[in-house]
């Protein structure tokens, strides 16, 4: 009985070890595991090995980012603007909802939406994004030009946009969703 | 750059939210090394990591006004980077198409020629082992090692339950261990 309890404890330690190493456990639980480590050479060995691997990893040299490249990135970031171009109508702004010829619409997520509405929109947007991605990959395969273009038709006219920009906008929507849930799930 | 030399991180964030480019430099300068290392290890390619660094900065600049300070800024920043990596891997199928281009290590970290050889061998092994990991395991491991995020925060960022995140970490380290052990770099 005692042996099987210890076995369970050792199995649990395989997961708890990481929280112990990153000091995320409550004090009492931390102490329980320290007590266990005193009497369990198996778990002590696992912990030492994990520490050793992480130490080796931290010492492995990594590539450096050139100062010039960093400055470029910074400069481009603060100047970046989405590029839209209308074929038959005036400028379409990037936050405007757009529809594909297939009738797929993108929602724009207002950052201050409440959680319930956000979740609803998240599902709706995700479904549309999945559908839209399929269309985009199809458009890409048409190789409309050197920089593949996506053509959109809305009630207001026909628009073209570099496919890369469309993809970036989709990424941005998904990132907005991810960051909203990080902010809201406190 | 000597603008805002004595500002706190919180003050710099507020200035960035008002689109102050100098404050953005001060803020990003502090994180650029761990952020770039995270990106290099995530994709296994220095040039691609430079592009991802660029994308991350663009998104940080764009989305920073929505940062509410409920999580540490570093956690928020690395969750942006995590999303950038995930999107890039999905779109470009990096792992399938890139035949492990060499990453050039930071020379300042290697001390003697003998050390360099050992360090370089270890680096290659570690990078190969990382690239061989399933994406989720690799991302959890890298977020933990480079961002200093707690596992509970990583669970939020990746949208996975805490226990799943801990399993990813466990398997990632086990595979790294096996790889290093096979090459006698650990006993
Ligand atoms: Zn044990």
Any idea what the radius of gyration of chain B is?
Answer: 18 Å
Overall number of domains of chain B: 2
Any idea of the CATH class of the largest domain in chain B? Mainly Alpha
Number of helices of chain B: 9
The CATH topology of the largest domain in chain B turns out to be: Rna Polymerase Sigma Factor, Chain: A
Structural class of chain B: mainly alpha
**CATH homologous superfamily (4th level) name of the largest domain in chain B:** RNA polymerase sigma factor, region 2, helix turn helix motif
Helix content of chain A: 55-70%
* β-sheet strand percentage of chain A: 5-15%
Largest beta-sheet details of chain A = 3 strands, antiparallel
Give the ligands present: zinc ion
Secondary structure layout:
The complex is a heterodimer of chains A (186) and B (187).
Chain A: H1 2-21, H2 27-39, H3 41-59, H4 67-79, E1 85-86, H5 115-142, E2 149-154, E3 157-162, H6 163-184
Helix pairs in contact in A: 1-3, 2-3, 5-6
Chain B: H1 9-17, H2 21-43, H3 46-63, H4 73-92, H5 94-97, H6 113-132, H7 135-147, H8 151-158, H9 162-182
């Amino acid at each position: 009985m005692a042996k099987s309890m210890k076995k369970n404890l050792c199995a649990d330690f395989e997961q708890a070890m990481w929280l112990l190493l990153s000091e995320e456990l409550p004090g009492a639980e931390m102490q329980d595991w320290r007590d266990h480590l005193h009497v369990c050479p198996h778990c002590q060995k696992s912990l030492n090995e994990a520490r050793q691997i992480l130490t080796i990893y931290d010492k492995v040299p990594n590539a450096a980012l050139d100062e010039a490249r960093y400055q470029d990135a910074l400069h481009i970031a603060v100047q970046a603007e989405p590029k839209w171009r209308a074929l038959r109508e005036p400028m379409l702004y990037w936050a405007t909802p757009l529809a594909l010829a297939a009738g797929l619409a993108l929602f724009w997520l207002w950052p201050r939406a409440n959680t319930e509405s956000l979740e609803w929109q998240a599902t709706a947007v995700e479904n549309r994004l999945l559908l839209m991605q399929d269309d985009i990959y199809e458009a890409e395969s048409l190789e409309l030009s050197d920089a593949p273009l996506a053509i959109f038709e809305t009630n207001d006219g026909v628009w073209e946009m570099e496919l890369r920009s469309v993809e970036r906008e989709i990424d941005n929507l998904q990132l907005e969703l991810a960051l909203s849930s990080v902010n809201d799930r406190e | 750059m000597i603008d805002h030399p004595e500002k706190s991180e919180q003050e710099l964030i507020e200035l960035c939210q008002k689109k102050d480019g100098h404050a953005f430099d001060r803020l990003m300068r502090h994180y650029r090394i761990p952020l770039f290392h995270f990106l290099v290890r995530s994709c296994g390619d220095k040039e691609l990591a430079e592009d991802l660094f660029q994308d991350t900065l663009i998104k940080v600049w764009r989305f920073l006004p929505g940062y509410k300070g409920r999580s540490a800024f570093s956690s928020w920043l690395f969750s942006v980077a995590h999303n950038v990596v995930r999107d890039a891997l999905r779109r470009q199928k990096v792992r399938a198409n890139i035949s492990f281009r060499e990453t050039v290590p930071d020379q300042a970290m290697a001390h003697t020629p003998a050390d360099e050889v050992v360090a370089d061998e270890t680096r290659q092994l570690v990078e190969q082992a990382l690239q061989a990991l399933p994406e989720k395991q690799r991302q959890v491991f890298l977020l933990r090692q480079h961002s200093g995020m707690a596992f509970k925060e990583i669970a939020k960022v990746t949208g996975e339950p805490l226990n799943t995140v801990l399993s990813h970490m466990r398997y990632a380290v086990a595979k790294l261990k096996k790889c290093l052990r096979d090459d006698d770099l650990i006993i």
